[in-house]
Write the structure tokens for this entry.
Amino acid sequence: MEIKNILPEFSLGLSPMEAVTTPCFRQICKKYGVDVLFSEFISSDALARGIESSCKKMDFKEEERPLAIQIFGNNETSLREAAELAAQSSCDWIDINWGCPVKKVAGKGCGSGILNDIGKMEYLTKKVVESVNIPVSVKTRLGYSDDNKPIVEVAERMQDVGVQLISIHGRTRNQMYKGEADWTLIGEVKNNPRMNIPVFGNGDIDSAEKMLEYKNRYGVDGILIGRAAMGNPFIFRQCKDLLEGKQASLFGIKERIDACKEHLRGLRDWRGDRYAILEMRKFYSGYFRGLNNFKPYRIRLVTTNSYEEVEEILSLIEQTFDYEF
Ligand SMILES: Cc1cc2nc3c(=O)[nH]c(=O)nc-3n(C[C@H](O)[C@H](O)[C@H](O)COP(=O)(O)O)c2cc1C
């Protein structure tokens, strides 16, 4: 199986995000039309050691396909072991995270920390490709710093060691999340005649209109949406609408509450009440963006420690704000 054979002509993807792209949220995004899904990043060291909470992050349902499990690390043995374990989960392919900029990851040469040592990036990627009989993709950034953006060469070298898809976030490691994503180099990778694997662009896509504009301007094979999808799985339907030449759909309070409750219940079923209560807190402003005078409800949602109360507040919001927005 080759990745490009199971992708649609243009792919809309939910960008991998730690503690966000959980199975239940991915399933909700799927309902709204997302084409490609990735797990949260999973430490290869932790997977190789059999840490239960890390192994749990490999859970997924059939309906989520095509789905990639994303691993990160810097140690050849654990990267290979983690890739083998991920492959046993029967995911469609393995994605290597060579993009995470946070100190505790990049500082150890994992994630985008590897962009200081392209030779090692190439070596480790090749070892992962060789260790499994399912495809491998990578997600990375433009480079390490402003004066070091080797992504065009990196993409070629990834392709040459057998990587079948590359996703590029248009920032450098040192930029973290600051400034604006620069898509011009993503376009250069896509237009490089040496490249024949799919190239996905990523960074700052926050509306269906911007998705369509960037798709047309840079000609990428897919676009990954991250932060703008948090509490807003509806963005994928809106993207699909525009891609099909239709007007973007609007989503009323009932649909938003239903998605939010499904998300809450899914997290509870997966990891228990406490995990659900705490992890949902970062999603409410997404689900209810645009509601006038929502703040007092949000404060209650993010301060209560009772699962039942969260459900009650959500029902109250539904009764109070019964208009389209
Ligand atoms: C909370 C959060 C967690 C993230 N976790 C991951 C991760 O596990 N793996 C990964 O490749 N990128 C991760 N990212 C980066 C996103 O996938 C994406 O590349 C980045 O947010 C830029 O896209 P956006 O502007 O659409 O959000 C994370 C980003 C955020 C905000």
Observations:
- Residues 15-18, 20, 40-41, 70, 97, 99-100, 139, 169, 202-205, 225-228 surround flavin mononucleotide (CB under 6 Å).
- The longest strand covers residues 136-143.
- DSSP finds 16 helices and eight strands in the chain.
